[in-house]
Task: inverse folding
């Protein structure tokens, strides 16, 4: 038998999930090796940016990493609003109640800064156990012996065995897929997030948002500004920048053949934004990533043998109505997975870690947040088109308008109810029609003119840093029917744009014309979209290769 | 494992750094000195061995006091433990032979005889590629030092601690380039090829590498070139001035011919882009070609 390098625990991925798992394991004296594919932790990661510490959570990031808020987060966010938009009319609701529900604190974050800081702490802690954290190393699969998972295989290193493998490798987890625990087939199960980090000096932020240095704002946007695509926009204040982005249901992006960068531009150029831009706009970074929808994909039993999935890899990303909570759940899951292994090991039965982890996810109420039973009950009913149609009709009718007027404050309350939000179905009605109608009926006209011009897609790509390697994605079926959706859905491609990843080509043969797609992975931001909407063989690039986000 | 890596300063030949006078002669005073690029590759081999086998790396150079900075640069690259500079006037203007003689004596002066000596392929200024092999020859004829096999053109390296052997792949260039695997007993002398690639396929090696980098960064910040570089002159090394430096160099440089400029068959006419008539004539001139004639 081959002698492999062995560690007690291997953690794949140094996002919040992996970092927490590794630090917790190290604290229990477990020899822990952390493997991260980016040149630096955070260089591959994107989030909108609100990191929540929930009162009910067994692990919060500042418990595991004291000092993080001073050293590595942006502004604490206390005020949260949602803007319901219909044309130029906007009705703003205060989401404060929802924001503060179960919230100990909430900070805006930029992932490069935060994850890189976390990784430093994790390396110090794990090094003491004989392990440590390595960057620029990509795990490419599971090592099996006699059908059992015993370790990982890697691009840059020889295979490594471990008593426990924690896959915290994020959305599009190659390990979860290899283990057969997750697939990348259904666009309905994902959101696509696209984001711009916009330069703004601290004084200007304070001034335009009417806040002080240690205060921050969160604004959400929904209504008719996104061409009917289901989802919404966000804006969070950082120390010296704004994070502005969009999160849409991937199936809706695909069906509407929407161009994600244009939807982002719709938000950026809406008159409502002028109060903050005042005609100035400088984009630091454009980025994108898929986001799992826990209601549909949070795995009820996220383990197989020695492999435990945490965070996005296990689909543990909660969209609580318009509020997106992924990082906090990754932290909790990472802590619970580590704790489960330490306990199982202490009982002399490390193989029981998986079951113990599953029990803990249930006992701590994590699963209930991720997959609210209420949603399961209402989903079948309300996601059917008939119900939605009736709902839309009712809403559009004069009666509906009067209802909204009368019950405006009730609607605001409903937006703030975690209970109700847990059962909201994913329909056009809830994402587009209701907010639009609210804006229309209750809103007031925005008179400002927003004249900023967001960068063109090729400039956005041009401003990113890449370390180009061999293609990491292969199109298996290049017919337009199988893979054409990627031309529009890929956030760095667009119809008629030659500089992106996916292109549409017309091939003429014997008088007939065929539409095909071609792929150039050079400008790829590794968002994962085409793994789901096109017929591809999709892998992450090797360690240190591909795109490098500086903000995240 | 105790290792010595040999290195030398050379003029920085990179565009924007190097300076030539009107006759095309190098202006040493105006051109910064940097580590010979091929030596950096030797350093990678030493570092790989240090990371994988453990042990210490000493860096040694012969040259003027200014080379201390080259040693410092090397230390930061290879995370070297000690730095040695063999330096005084008597050693100046040495050819490869006198240099080899001096360095072999420097190695003899070390407290412990190294298991491995690394040198880079030829220098950027001398281009001879002699110093490594000649140094090994001088080690052979030195009665206090153990004879050691030399492996040149090394592109990869594995050490077997137990067997006390080194196994290397070497690039043998001929009509067709071949890769040859050779094995030798330690101690040995290694000359790296520019194609040398270090390999760290174990997590443990990469973690140690990271440790070393951190340790060295700390040491580099506190490095005091006067204190931390051991300087030996010819007396310290007990070397007869007649056998080193210019006097000990059998090579005689009779003269230097600048490389002649390639003959130009065409005459250039300068045209100011603001001169309209001039630019017009350019377009007229080009026009005939645009037509494809
Ligand atoms: C636009 C957008 C907005 C969002 N907004 C919010 C928000 O406001 N609040 C919130 O809480 N969440 C938000 N999220 C979701 C949040 O970002 C994720 O849920 C969270 O990052 C998940 O953390 P994780 O540790 O599971 O995975 P990640 O943070 O994705 O970390 C995975 C790590 O694994 C590494 N990796 C992957 N594959 C390999 C491999 N094969 N080998 C080695 N390393 C590998 C990656 O490089 C990465 O560092 C948002 C997401 C997006 C895209
Ligand atoms: S090529 Fe695929 S993974 Fe890359 S950015 Fe486009 S959709 Fe995302």
Result:
């Amino acid at each position: 038998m081959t002698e492999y390098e062995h560690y007690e625990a291997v953690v794949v991925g140094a996002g919040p999930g992996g970092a927490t798992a590794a630090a917790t394991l190290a604290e229990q004296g477990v020899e822990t090796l952390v493997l991260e594919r980016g040149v630096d932790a955070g260089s591959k990661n994107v989030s909108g940016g609100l990191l929540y510490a929930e009162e009910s959570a067994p692990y919060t990031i500042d418990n595991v990493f004291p000092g993080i808020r001073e050293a590595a987060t942006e502004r604490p966010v206390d005020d949260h609003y949602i803007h319901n938009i219909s044309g130029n009319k906007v009705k703003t609701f205060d989401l404060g109640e929802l924001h503060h529900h179960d919230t100990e604190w909430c900070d805006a974050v930029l992932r490069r800064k935060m994850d890189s800081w976390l990784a430093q702490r994790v390396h110090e802690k794990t090094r003491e156990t004989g392990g440590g954290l390595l960057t620029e190393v990509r795990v490419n699969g599971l090592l099996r012996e006699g059908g059992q998972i015993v370790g990982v295989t890697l691009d840059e290193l020889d295979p490594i065995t471990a008593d426990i493998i924690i896959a915290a490798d994020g959305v599009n987890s190659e390990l979860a897929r290899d283990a057969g625990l997750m697939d990348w087939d259904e666009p309905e199960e994902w959101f696509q997030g696209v984001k711009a980090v916009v330069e703004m000096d601290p004084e200007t932020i304070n001034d335009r948002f009417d806040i002080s240095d240690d205060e921050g704002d969160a604004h959400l946007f929904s209504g008719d500004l996104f061409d009917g695509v289901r989802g919404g926009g966000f804006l969070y204040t950082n120390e010296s920048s704004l994070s502005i982005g969009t999160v849409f249901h991937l199936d809706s992006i695909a069906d509407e053949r929407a161009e994600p960068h244009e939807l982002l531009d719709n938000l950026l150029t809406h008159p409502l934004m002028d109060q903050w831009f005042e005609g100035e706009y400088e984009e630091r970074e454009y980025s994108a990533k898929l986001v799992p929808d826990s209601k549909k994909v949070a795995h009820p039993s996220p383990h197989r043998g020695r492999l435990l999935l945490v965070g996005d890899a296990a689909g543990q990303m909660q969209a609580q109505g318009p509020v997106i909570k992924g990082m906090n759940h990754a932290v909790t899951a990472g802590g619970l997975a580590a704790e489960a292994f330490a306990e199982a090991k202490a009982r002399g039965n490390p193989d029981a870690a998986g079951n113990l982890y599953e029990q803990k996810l249930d006992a701590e109420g994590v699963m209930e947040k991720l997959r609210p039973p209420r949603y399961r009950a209402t989903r079948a009913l309300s996601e059917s088109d008939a119900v939605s149609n009736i709902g839309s009709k009712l809403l559009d009718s004069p009666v509906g308008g009067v209802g909204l007027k009368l019950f405006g404050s009730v609607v605001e309350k409903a937006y703030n109810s975690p209970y109700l939000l847990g059962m909201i179905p994913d329909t056009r009605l809830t994402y587009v029609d209701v907010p639009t109608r609210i804006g229309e009926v209750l809103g007031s006209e925005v008179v400002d003119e927003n004249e900023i011009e967001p960068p063109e897609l090729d400039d956005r790509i041009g401003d990113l840093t890449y370390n180009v390697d061999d293609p990491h994605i292969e199109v298996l079926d290049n017919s337009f029917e199988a893979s054409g959706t990627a031309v529009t859905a890929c956030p760095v491609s667009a119809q008629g744009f030659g500089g992106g990843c996916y292109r549409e080509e017309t091939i003429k043969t014997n008088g007939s014309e065929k539409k095909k797609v071609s792929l150039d992975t050079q400008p790829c931001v590794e968002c994962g979209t085409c793994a789901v909407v096109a017929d591809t063989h999709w892998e992450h690039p090797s360690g240190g290769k591909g795109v490098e986000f500086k903000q995240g | 494992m105790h290792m010595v890596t040999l290195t030398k300063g050379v003029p920085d030949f990179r565009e924007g750094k190097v300076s030539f006078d009107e006759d095309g002669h190098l202006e040493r005073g105006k051109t910064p000195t940097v580590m010979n690029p091929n030596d950096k590759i030797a350093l990678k081999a030493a570092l790989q061995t240090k990371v994988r086998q453990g042990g210490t790396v000493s860096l040694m150079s012969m040259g003027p006091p200014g080379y201390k900075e080259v040693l410092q640069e090397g230390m930061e690259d290879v995370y070297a433990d000690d730095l040695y500079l063999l330096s005084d006037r008597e050693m100046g203007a040495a050819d490869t032979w006198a240099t080899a003689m001096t360095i072999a004596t420097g190695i003899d002066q070390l407290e412990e005889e190294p298991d491995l000596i690394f040198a880079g392929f030829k220098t950027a200024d001398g281009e001879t590629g002699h110093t490594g092999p000649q140094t090994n020859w001088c080690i052979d004829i030195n009665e206090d030092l153990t004879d050691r096999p030399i492996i040149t053109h090394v592109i990869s390296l594995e050490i077997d601690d137990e067997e006390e052997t080194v196994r290397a792949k070497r690039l043998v260039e001929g009509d067709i380039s071949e890769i040859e695997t050779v094995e030798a007993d330690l101690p040995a002398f290694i000359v790296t090829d520019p194609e040398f690639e270090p390999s760290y396929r174990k997590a443990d090696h990469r973690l140690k590498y990271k440790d070393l980098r951190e340790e060295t960064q700390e040491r580099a910040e506190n490095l005091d070139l006067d204190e931390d570089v051991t300087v030996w002159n010819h007396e310290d090394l007990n070397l007869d001035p007649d056998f080193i430096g210019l006097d000990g160099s059998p090579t005689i440089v009779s003269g230097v011919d600048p490389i002649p400029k390639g003959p130009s068959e065409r005459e250039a006419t300068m045209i100011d882009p603001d001169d309209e008539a001039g630019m017009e004539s350019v377009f007229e001139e080009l026009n005939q070609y645009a037509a494809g004639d």
Remarks:
- The domain at 2-243 of chain B is CATH 3.40.50.620 (Rossmann fold).
